[in-house]
């Protein structure tokens, strides 16, 4: 790659990648099942895209959207954008159209890079659209600009309580400080890292930049929800995966029902939620020989700011530490006046140091509230108010305790209920919405209470929500009401709403009562996983709040307790309890005939 700059610019992601490419030019950099690119090829192909972008007028601090399915071409695009000096905005093509459009518009992108043939569907958004597929025989470009450490590298989005997703910029120096941090697990050039995260999710940065930092190979795999519909262990082993960052919720579920899933990994990093002590015990006791890590950190502080190496968890331990802070990062436990609390006491976690991002795009008031001066740094540094509660132990290690506000984690994603409420209330027949999280922390689900005209049905409203919101933000259940009840103080009566939910859940018609051994067994199992409420024979697993993680666990339990192996997609294709019970009985009859 040819680069020109009259000043030395160390510490950028471009420099990080090119250093690795020079060391390991012939090692595999990324593979997706259809195409494998070695480091030299990835460097050359991204150079060509960078030159094309520069010729189109793209330069430093310009933002360029990557709008294409997860594949090796995504990494060509990311590197090409960075080599042009610009900032990438990775948009998950699986999001609803309205959500993707909103992300692109809020990012203020100059250009969109997309798949060949996809340009027409994006032309209405304003930015120039480039349909691009890299080629092995593209001519080498001339000199390219070199970004500076303080230049923007990527734009990320998180859920916003105002109903609009919050966008913020991470700089090269932020991501570089995370990617090669001595407190983090150290990868090897021989490692193969699973790439399962959404390109719009912060875990994507671990998969990408930590791998490129050490010359490891990124292996693009199906998303976790799709893996759970197959044999996760076999999928990892078939692809010879040695490094994985697993969503915390998936880790907790897999550890409970199938702890041997991770046996072949050298490094297992878990992040995005509360890691269960029991899950760690199960995995460590399953013969797991690799290293297990618990990563903590809001997206606004560059994916992670602390990490704990989990080597053992005692039978009396009820929580898992989130670790010491990473090199160059700082974390404080403060009271409501932003004064340090005594060691061992609970306060709000604030994060300072090299990972703190710039702040929210076009939201100066919110930026001022959350990105505040860091009085402990001795300079003009800022710290980020996480909204998380935690404590620091006498040994300096931190523990996560909970949230100080209404924000919840749904399958590892941060969700502001207010954003979901505003989306639902925009339906023409809806007037107001209140969204509550129900269930245990391991399986939180959203339930929406909506004041609406009688002509609106819950099916219609859920279909509307799926068009407006990412899948993880769509409520698992909707209750339509004439009005939202108030308490004696004039505020929304959350207690009354939860009572309405419980009353609605208890109503089962006689014809809906489970009958027979298998239906009764499944009803008990569903109650265990979906909450302590009656389950009818005609209830739909997914409509009742089920998801791919719980479907995986039910399949495992059926195999262990009934001795029946049902297909991986059985619950997806037979979500109604009575239909699933019939399938299990048919499978059992087939097995009995084969044995006899």
From TrEMBL:
InterPro entries: AA_adenyl_dom (IPR010071), ACP-like_sf (IPR036736), AMP-bd_C (IPR025110), AMP-bd_C_sf (IPR045851), AMP-binding_CS (IPR020845), AMP-dep_synth/lig_dom (IPR000873), ANL_N_sf (IPR042099), PKS_PP-bd (IPR020806). GO terms for biological process: amino acid activation for nonribosomal peptide biosynthetic process; antibiotic biosynthetic process; secondary metabolite biosynthetic process. GO terms for cellular component: cytoplasm. Keywords: Phosphopantetheine, Phosphoprotein. Residues 513-588 form the Carrier domain. It holds the Pfam family AMP-binding. One of its GO terms (molecular function) is phosphopantetheine binding. NCBIfam families: AA-adenyl-dom. This is Non-ribosomal peptide synthetase. It comes from Streptomyces bingchenggensis (strain BCW-1).
């Amino acid at each position: 790659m040819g680069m020109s700059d009259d000043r030395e610019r160390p510490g950028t992601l471009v420099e990080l990648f090119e250093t690795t490419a020079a060391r390991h030019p012939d090692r595999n950099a990324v593979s997706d099942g259809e195409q494998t690119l070695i480091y030299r090829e990835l460097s050359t192909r991204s150079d060509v895209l960078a030159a094309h972008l520069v010729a189109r007028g793209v330069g430093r601090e310009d933002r360029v959207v990557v709008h294409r399915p997860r594949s090796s071409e995504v990494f060509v695009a990311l590197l090409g954008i960075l080599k042009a000096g610009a900032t990438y905005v990775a948009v998950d093509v699986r999001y609803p159209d309205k959500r993707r459009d909103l992300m692109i518009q809020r990012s203020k992108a100059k250009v969109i890079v997309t798949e060949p043939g996809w340009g027409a569907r994006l032309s209405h958004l304003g930015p120039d659209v480039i349909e691009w597929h890299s080629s092995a025989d593209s001519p080498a470009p001339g000199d390219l600009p070199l970004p500076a450490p303080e230049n923007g590298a990527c734009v990320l989005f998180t859920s916003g309580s105002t109903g609009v997703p919050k966008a913020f910029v991470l700089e090269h120096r932020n991501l570089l400080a995370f990617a090669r941090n001595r407190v983090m697990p150290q990868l090897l050039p021989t490692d193969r890292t699973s790439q399962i995260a959404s390109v719009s999710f912060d875990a994507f940065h671990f998969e990408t930049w930590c791998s490129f930092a050490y010359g490891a190979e990124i292996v693009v795999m199906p998303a976790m929800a799709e893996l759970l519909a197959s044999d996760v262990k076999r999928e990892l082993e078939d692809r010879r995966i040695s490094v994985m960052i697993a969503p915390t919720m998936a880790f907790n579920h897999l550890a409970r029902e199938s702890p041997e899933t991770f046996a072949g990994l050298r490094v297992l990093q878990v992040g995005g939620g509360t890691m269960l002590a029991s899950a760690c015990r199960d995995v460590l006791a399953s013969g797991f020989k690799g290293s297990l890590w618990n990563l903590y950190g809001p997206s606004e502080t560059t994916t992670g700011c602390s990490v704990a190496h989990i080597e053992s968890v005692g039978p009396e331990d009820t929580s898992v530490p989130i670790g010491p802070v990473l090199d160059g990062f700082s974390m404080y436990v403060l009271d409501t006046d932003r004064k340090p609390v005594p060691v061992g006491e609970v306060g709000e976690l604030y994060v300072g140091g090299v990972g703190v991002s710039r702040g929210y795009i076009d939201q100066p008031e919110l930026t001022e509230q959350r990105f505040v001066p860091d009085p402990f740094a001795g300079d003009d540094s800022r710290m980020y108010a996480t909204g998380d509660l935690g404590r620091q132990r006498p040994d300096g290690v931190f523990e996560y305790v909970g949230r100080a506000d209404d924000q919840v984690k749904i399958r590892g994603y941060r969700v502001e209920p207010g954003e979901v409420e505003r989306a639902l209330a925009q339906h023409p027949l809806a007037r107001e919405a209140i969204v509550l999280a129900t269930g245990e922390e391991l399986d939180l689900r959203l339930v929406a209470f909506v004041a609406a005209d009688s002509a609106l049905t819950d099916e219609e409203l859920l279909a509307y929500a799926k068009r407006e919101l990412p899948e993880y933000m769509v409520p698992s259940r909707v209750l339509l009401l004439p009005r939202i009840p108030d308490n004696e103080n004039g505020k929304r009566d959350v207690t009354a709403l939860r009572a309405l939910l419980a009353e609605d859940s208890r109503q089962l018609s006689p014809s809906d009562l489970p009958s027979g051994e298998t239906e009764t067994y499944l009803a008990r199992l569903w109650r265990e996983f979906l909450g302590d409420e009656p389950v009818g024979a005609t209830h739909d697993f997914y409509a009742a709040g089920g998801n791919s993680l719980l479907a995986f666990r039910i399949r495992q339990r059926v195999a262990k307790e009934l001795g029946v192996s049902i297909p991986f997609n059985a619950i997806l294709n037979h979500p109604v309890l009575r239909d699933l019970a019939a399938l299990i009985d048919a499978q059992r009859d087939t097995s009995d005939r084969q044995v006899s």
